[in-house]
């Protein structure tokens, strides 16, 4: 900026090359990054980006353009494929935000710029960007809403951060002026602790592994990971993004393999584990222990007999518990559900590596939802935290801007401020997007709680919260602090053409419940009622299990009682969650027949009717669910956890009639009170089991007896497998137990024919 003759500051005339050269020199001198924003015409922005590359004097192979345009001499990625940059570094990354812009893409590319590099953002005019619409907005415009209903609040907030954050240069392409030059030299520290190498007497991993560490933090993490050489150990490695935790895990895995040990590596996706294998392969090669021709992207073999293999999360627990496995390394643990994390505790030694603040996941969720269970396990637990950046120096303005703009570091209120919250002390309120934008602190509290509610919350979710026309947020506050939130999605109210399109197999965005009911369960009228699906609900960890979640749901029910036909929810089914929603008067109407690829869980859909139309929808799907579930449990759901089946059936909220004939009752009575056999008429036993499990309070059965009904009668498992799983001494004992289980069912559900047959044996 310069001053005019009257002393007023005016923008500098544009010279993109000189601007880029200055910011590049500054970035290299500080080992930080700088952000350059070119706002205005798209073609002019692309030309300016070429000027940046020239001015920064960067080789072509260190430059990536993320754009839907084609015809560049540099590497080009479509914005949909920006995830391929995760785990890689570039000197210059150009993100074209004129078309197909998404917060996810921004989060991915920001982390790919190396220290000394430049992130270049090409945008429409900043004054007009909030009203600009592209394909991302079209994805937010879920039926019956159109793209004109999508707001631009996320972009407006993003623009405000660009205009006032340090280290950000702003260029107005329309006026050919530099509004901000982005110069930033404050708060820079050049002193980074030097990595240390433990003495030979204190070290078990190879010296070379420690020599490959880039920071003292990474060396400390590697030292902590030496515990994996002993059984019964668990190591938690936490870090912000870009601190080298995956590299430390790779050095540890390579060191173990060099000793001849077998290491299983898992992560939400193979690409999340790429850095682990890169560092492990490099170490094994340097040590001379990498077996010739043995390395591929996700399997390494050592000449010592050791190996490192990637296994998907849903299979990793079983693989790691085998006798051949010595250690399990879980990368990006925060992005995995607790059920899977618990399954990893059967391995001899395990490392949980998790990102605390970053695109990959929410480490705070890991700490809240799983850490207490880990501490209660049989493992000796140790922890280490990495704070020093690897790819760039501390105080990097691009990192702090990305955290701020995408709320990667959003947190709920501190425990002390909400610890006294009870259902009686809280207030119910609507949190509109405008309310959240007007109070940054409240936005961070609300989004921080939503991050904890789900094992994978992405930057796109922030834009959905602020801009999607079908979403609305409700909360409970205690002394002004948010203690519980629920994100609701409006669904249904679809016209006949849209419903017909769904029925014929077409996908309709944002209408999950009507979509499943229509396309999978063949109910073309399911899209007529208007419902609100609870997408996420979260209560502050300091006041969990205190009734706040139920209080929030009751307030939502009262508010929408006259404005909607039903409330619904879909989630990965666990006994605890099914029971929670059942206690809040939601009825189970469907269990998916395929597992979620990441969580490994089957999904449950549940409804709470609010109107006559909603009651009709609920009742017919509850009836259909009970009619088909007996057959499905014997087929696609034959591996469903019996406690999940019990909880789902107990939540079915329907009067299921076993409808046994007099002959069938005689067979059931004969097998329970007399010498008969279950195999004579298994269908009768199945229907009677369903009658009990959908109304478990009518007859008294133990949990094990109900599991026996599920495993043998409904899932038709072989007797030896059932006896072994349920801890019976023999198959004969299990068979007798099944007969005993049907006695109270005969007494409760049997009519005259059943009682007459029973009395013969009594």
From TrEMBL:
* Coiled coil feature spans: none
- Which positions are annotated as binding ATP? 218, 391
**Keyword flag Isomerase:** no
Q: Where in the cell is it found?
A: Cytoplasm
UniProt entry keywords in alphabetical sequence: Acyltransferase, ATP-binding, Cytoplasm, Nucleotide-binding, RNA-binding, Transferase, tRNA processing, tRNA-binding
Which residues are acetyl-CoA-binding? Answer: 537-539, 576
Span of domain TcmA/NAT10 helicase: 236-409
Q: Which InterPro entries match?
A: Acyl_CoA_acyltransferase, GNAT_dom, P-loop_NTPase, TcmA/NAT10_helicase, TmcA/NAT10/Kre33, TmcA/NAT10_N, tRNA_acetyltr_TmcA, tRNA_Cytidine_AcTrnsfr
Which reaction does this enzyme catalyse, per its entry?
Answer: a cytidine in tRNA + acetyl-CoA + ATP + H2O = an N(4)-acetylcytidine in tRNA + ADP + phosphate + CoA + H(+); a cytidine in RNA + acetyl-CoA + ATP + H2O = an N(4)-acetylcytidine in RNA + ADP + phosphate + CoA + H(+); a cytidine in mRNA + acetyl-CoA + ATP + H2O = an N(4)-acetylcytidine in mRNA + ADP + phosphate + CoA + H(+); cytidine(34) in elongator tRNA(Met) + acetyl-CoA + ATP + H2O = N(4)-acetylcytidine(34) in elongator tRNA(Met) + ADP + phosphate + CoA + H(+)
Biological-process GO terms, alphabetical:
rRNA acetylation involved in maturation of SSU-rRNA; tRNA acetylation; tRNA wobble cytosine modification
Domain (TmcA/NAT10 N-terminal): residue spans on this chain: 25-172
N-acetyltransferase domain: residues covered? 448-560
Task: Please give the superkingdom of this protein's source.
Answer: Archaea
Q: What is its EC number?
A: 2.3.1.193
GO CC annotations? cytoplasm
Q: Name one GO molecular function term.
A: mRNA N-acetyltransferase activity
Task: Mention any Pfam family matching this sequence.
Answer: GNAT_acetyltr_2
Name the protein family. Belongs to the TmcA family.
Role description: Catalyzes the formation of N(4)-acetylcytidine (ac(4)C) at the wobble position of tRNA(Met), by using acetyl-CoA as an acetyl donor and ATP (or GTP).
Q: Which named protein is this?
A: tRNA(Met) cytidine acetyltransferase TmcA
Q: Which organism is it from?
A: Haloferax mucosum ATCC BAA-1512
